[in-house]
Design brief:
Blueprint: H1 2-30, H2 37-58, H3 66-72, H4 74-93, H5 100-119, H6 122-150, H7 162-166, H8 177-195, H9 213-225, H10 239-245, H11 249-256, H12 258-270, H13 277-289, E1 307-313, H14 327-335, E2 337-339, E3 342-343, H15 350-360, H16 371-374, H17 384-389, E4 394-399, H18 408-414, E5 419-421, H19 436-447, E6 454-459, H20 472-485, H21 491-516, E7 523-529, H22 538-545, H23 550-553, E8 558-561, E9 568-570, E10 574-575, H24 579-586, E11 610-611, E12 617-618, E13 622-625, E14 628-632, H25 638-658
Parallel strand pairs: 1-6, 1-7, 2-9, 3-10, 4-5, 4-6
Antiparallel strand pairs: 2-8, 7-8, 11-12, 12-13, 13-14
Length: 663
């Protein structure tokens, strides 16, 4: 121990030097593509083990014996144990991948908190410790519940949409044993720090300033163990880019921990993003390098001069189609063009983000806050509504909920719609607004005007959760589903299908109104969903559908119906990003196809791709995350495509921040 007391700092510096040399060898000789992966992995492990030894050595007391340290800092040790233990429980419970970086990052943030606690006045310290314990207990439970519903973690920036997000979650929120465990751990920690708190304040001086060396050393070790990109084009694969951008909340927490995420998220939420001429140049450069050669094809202009009713069906899924129970939706599928391999990827603000994608073919906000709240004033000259209004159409949007929900009364006018109608505008009451069939009866004269061509965009409501007896829509139609399926279908699925019966009534009312108004032969119907019904219990949905991969759950049918087209099925991969450019081709609208992230699916040069919010992608053959194939067969263009997807996301966020398409 005497030797360690004399040479501890020298040993730590030596270990840091060895770690730095190992990192330099890795970066110089083994990071680039095509090198010896086994050798690089060996270096990564060596760096991690030497770093671990360094951390252990840092916390070995040499000036006091272990018992003295445990007594003097017992309250801080108790709080540290709480933070470490709850963090690990949270990560394991949500099946997140963890690594040495996770351990080192957690040690770093805990050491920073403890450093702050030993230099602030004792009367403040106790209050801060209580706050940390209570706050993170609530935070972990809230994030766990959110993840259980959305398979993602929320950001503080989403608080503005919290009310909207929780409005229809009745019966979806479940408290579990681990939440009770978090509470018990918190209570135990609070009792301990209350009865055994110590005045262990350190007064800052030149001598005591060495306490800052611990977090600084840990910061160095975190960077030594971080993932680095092979080149600038692969920046998305680095931990530094992940930390800066927070493009993937789940990955961020798995690499840096939930406490680190909450701190980073807080500062990211209060510090506004700045824009520069460099952002505008990056957008221009991207579009110049990615020009799309749209060619006239056999489907170009087949709907020229016709009207369009676009139905964005809340939580629609293929399991909601039944010949007997939903005959009108069945009709759309079997009389129109049925895109059976269509995907509607779930983005952070689900329905509103899908509406944004349908109308712009651009990527919504990922980490800057909800698109509908942060960028509701943005204008889009190439939006679907503007393409139609440029052709002399009336373009109106409808939803049988409140117009302030997701700020639609601001968003839709800036998307080019002349009017946005909510349930009050259409004469509905708060009691009957959830019934789409009533909505259609009351709104048909607005949706289907007879004084000129029209484009009507409708987001339905009946298909929304919860899928239980508390949902009046589901309860109304449940007996029909139960009569057909009985015990052969899970209860939650039966209630879900019951909501789709009401959506089907809406489609039936639409067909009747088209006949009545003489618009049947001059109107096109497009029908798809905003997202799959993710609020159904994961185990129930997976076992019933047989789909266990999250990215495949996003498969949602797309139907395009017109009285004069022959029914046929299209199996090629398509996504929600492709709808706008495809409609532009079908209606012969004056579109600049290069500005869209999707493609006309009938174009001969169509390259199918599905963009997911975590920068992952699927091309029908492979599903790729961070440049690594997780599903499917080998694809020689994986890295090149991953690099391009990264560019799409980077440019997409810059487009929003700069309001690029506003004149």
């Amino acid at each position: 121990m005497k030797y360690l007391r004399e040479y501890k700092n020298t040993i730590i510096l030596s270990l840091l030097g060895v770690t730095g040399v190992l990192l330099a060898i890795r970066l110089i000789f083994f990071l680039q593509d095509g090198t010896n992966k086994a050798a690089e992995n060996l270096l990564i492990r060596l760096i991690a083990y030497v770093s671990l030894c360094t951390i252990i050595l840092i916390f070995i007391p040499v000036k006091q014996n272990l018992k003295q340290v445990l007594v003097k800092y017992r309250d801080l040790i108790a709080l540290s144990f709480f933070m470490f233990y709850t963090e690990l429980l949270f990560i394991l419970d949500n099946d997140l991948r963890y690594s040495f970086v996770t351990l080192f990052s957690l040690t770093l943030i805990v050491s920073i908190i403890n450093t702050i606690l030993v230099i602030i006045p004792p009367k403040w310290k106790y209050g801060v410790m209580v706050f940390i314990t209570i706050f993170y207990t609530i935070y972990y439970i809230a994030q766990d519940i959110y993840f259980d519903i959305f398979s993602d973690f929320f950001s503080y920036k989403e608080i503005v949409s919290l009310k909207a997000g929780l409005e229809f979650t009745g019966g979806v929120i479940h408290f579990r044993f681990i939440h009770l465990l978090f509470i018990v751990l918190a209570i135990g920690t609070l009792i301990f720090i209350t009865f055994y708190r110590k005045d262990n304040r350190i007064k800052l001086s030149k001598k005591t300033a060495t306490i800052f060396y611990i977090p600084l050393t840990l910061l160095v070790l975190v960077n030594f163990n971080a993932q680095y990109p092979a080149n600038y084009a692969r920046l998305y694969s680095s931990d530094h880019y992940l930390y800066y951008s927070r493009y993937n909340n789940s990955k961020f927490i798995s690499r840096f921990g939930a406490i680190n995420y909450s701190v980073r998220d807080f500062f990211n939420s209060i510090i506004p993003k700045t824009i520069s001429k460099r952002d505008l140049n990056a957008i221009e450069s991207f579009y110049q390098q990615n020009q799309k050669d749209h060619q006239i094809n056999e489907f170009t202009g087949i709907f020229t001069g016709k009207n369009l009713v676009f139905i964005n069906a809340e939580s629609f899924d293929g399991i909601g189609v039944d010949k007997d129970l939903t005959p009108n939706i069945w009709r759309l599928q079997n009389e129109g063009v049925y895109f059976s391999n269509h995907y509607v990827p779930v983005y952070p603000r689900t329905t509103s983000d899908s509406e944004f994608i349908f109308n712009t073919s651009l990527i919504p906000s990922i980490s800057d806050g909800p698109t509908c709240y942060t960028f509701h004033d943005n204008y889009f000259t190439n939006s679907l509504a503007n393409l139609f209004t440029d052709k002399g159409y009336q373009a109106n949007a409808f939803h049988n909920n409140r117009k302030d929900f997701y700020l639609r009364y601001k968003v839709f006018p800036n998307l080019g719609y002349e009017n946005f109608y909510d349930f009050e505008d259409l004469g509905l009451t708060s009691e009957n607004r959830r019934f789409d069939s009533i909505f259609m009866k009351e709104a048909k004269d607005y949706i289907l005007p007879t004084d000129g061509n029209f484009f009507s965009f409708i987001t339905t409501l009946s298909g929304h959760s919860p899928y239980n007896e508390d949902n009046r829509v589901a309860a109304k139609h449940y007996h029909k589903v139960d009569a057909k399926f009985g015990d052969n279908m899970p209860e939650e699925i039966k209630y879900y299908l019951a909501t789709q019966i009401e959506v089907d009534y809406f489609v039936g009312e639409l067909f009747n109104a088209l006949e009545e108004k003489g618009l049947y032969d001059n109107t096109v119907i497009i029908f798809t969903g905003d997202h799959y019904p993710y609020t159904i219990k994961t185990e129930t949905y997976e076992n019933y559908t047989g789909v266990f991969e999250e990215f495949l759950k996003n498969q949602t049918p797309l139907y395009i119906w017109s009285s004069d087209i022959s029914a046929h099925k299209i199996d090629k991969l398509t996504s929600s990003f492709d709808i706008l450019p495809t409609l532009a081709n079908l209606f012969n609208l004056d579109a600049d196809y290069s500005t869209y992230f999707g493609n006309d699916v009938f174009n001969n040069n169509y390259q199918p791709i599905v963009f997911y919010k975590d920068y992952s992608w699927y091309d029908g053959n492979v599903y790729v995350v961070d440049g690594e194939i997780l599903y499917g067969s080998t694809n020689e263009d994986v890295q090149q495509t991953s690099d391009l997807i990264f560019e799409y996301f980077e440019v997409g966020q810059k487009i929003l921040r700069t309001d690029y398409f506003s004149d």
